[in-house]
Amino acid sequence: MSLGDEKFLLLTTFRKDGTPVPTPLWVVGEADALFVWTPVDTGKVKRIRRSGDVEVAPCDFKGNPTGAAVKARARLLDEAGSDQVRQLIGRKYGLLGKVTVFGSKLRRGKNGTVGIEIVPST
Hints:
Blueprint: E1 8-14, E2 20-26, E3 28-30, E4 33-39, H1 43-50, E5 53-58, E6 70-76, H2 79-108, E7 113-120
Antiparallel strand pairs: 1-2, 1-5, 3-4, 4-7, 5-6, 6-7
């Protein structure tokens, strides 16, 4: 099973001092990339802006890893890319995904969240 087929992905970003900060997120896979979606004002977004070096691993909904972590590169997507990730989340996670994306748009506005593209290192 590929990481894009998992229900949750443990995305680990790193603080300036190298401290890992793991976060479980919904994930979708397209081609050779993974995509996640998150509010723009989170620490992980700030850390990805500074450095796109991350690690990813499959996990459960609490963030407990269920497989090995791999190094990857992450980048923040533009508005069109973020819209695409929202659609993919809705498609993969069904009604719950669609309701969550809709609720987020109501609370934060369209630009209150951002899609993140993650490419695992080979």
